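To the structural biology subgroup,

Please find below the input and predicted structure for MmgE/PrpD family protein, which we are adding to the shared reference set this quarter. The sequence is reproduced verbatim from the submission form. If anyone notices a discrepancy with their own records, reply to this email rather than editing the shared folder directly, so we keep one authoritative version.
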Amino acid sequence: MSEHHATPSGTPDVTNQLAEWIVGLNGADIPAEVRQEGLRTFVNWVGCAVGGARHETVDCALRALMPFSGGKTATILGRPERIDTLHAALINGITSHVLDYDDTHLKTIIHPAGPVASALLALAEARPVSGEDFLTALIIGVEVECRIGNSVYPHHYDRGWHITGTAGVFGAAAAVGKMIGLNVQQMRWALGLAASQSAGLREMFGTMTKSFHPGRSAQNGLTAALLAEAGFDSSERALEAPRGFATVMSDKQDWSEILDGLGTHWEAALNSYKPFACGIVIHPTIDGCQQVRAEIGDRVTEIEKVHLTTHPLVLELTGKRTPSTGLEGKFSVFHSAACALLRGDGAPTAFTDEIVNLPEITNLRDRIDATADPDCHEASVTIDITFRDGSTLRKHVERAIGSRDVPLSNEQLNTKFLDQASLVIGQASAQALLDLSWTTAKLDDVADVTRLSAAGQDAAK
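Predicted structure (tokenized):
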């Protein structure tokens, strides 16, 4: 988009132009490589949603909310229970993020699929949609939330907002709005309703509430689109108004990040997928420590101390020195390094309450320290190992596996999917679900994916 229409104050009418683009875009206008990345995004999300389905966080949420559920219209992936559509969006958003294993838009640290896919699939059982149209809506939702995130990052994030929750609600509203055929007027209202429900605090990292954020943004975005469809109005300048989202919640408002290159430059094509089930900034450390373990073998037991040189954001986000729960361990670079060195593990199995408190893990963890170096790239780390005999080893990771520079292949995504989903629904059912997910674009009814994830429960018993 080369021309921005402006309001009398000189600010572009961002909300309206974004709404026009969402409504006017045809699926055929999305380049093949972007659609393929959208499919990879969805396959990864399904694996994460099923993988997290049995986490205690999900059990707690269902105990609290199931008594208040409406009609049993929607599936919780990887579980036998059915629940109403709005609560399904919430619960599936929680399951897909609770392991901290989901996708990441690295420029903003948004986890895009959770809010968007959770909202879309929850509604898809009540309003059947083809896989092709589903993927179009998914890609649009990811594009919208990432562009809005770009427009306020990093100031918004630095204030303490959890950007997956705050930007994700816009992605969910846009995606559902596209799927159900909102017109431009209704889409403006949906974006406004989303803005009024934008929330999520970084203070919650390391607790159950972190995964509540993408779940609630899925539920709120779905609610916004359904209300707008029914004629429930809102401000039509929710993004750019002086008291709108961007001005209230950030010191930065870069409208070009939302409007420039719509339909030609795709943020949705820049998605990445986690190889490790924890905060993304820890990934270089885990990658490097796994490499060290492979090189030194049994000498891991002779390590005297470890020193990490990282970007300051690593310690800001993941500097928990003495985690006591698995969720806290996901935000401890010290635990993650110890576990990668001693066990070679960065999967969900590395972040359980039991593993976090193992004596051998805590003993090595206490001998790991770190220095924050602003000249170190966020995606890099230098690991200095000192052995008991005084010898040393240095490992530098410039870019970790799973980054855009070293992306996960489809084969690696398949392994990741099966390793976590098979623990919940069994190996055969996980393989069948993986195979079906890769054929999403050909499905007449995308809800076949959710139904198969629940059917797998019988095979897992």
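Summary notes: The mean pLDDT is 96. The domain at 14-273 is CATH 1.10.4100.10 (2-methylcitrate dehydratase PrpD).

Regards,
Lab coordination
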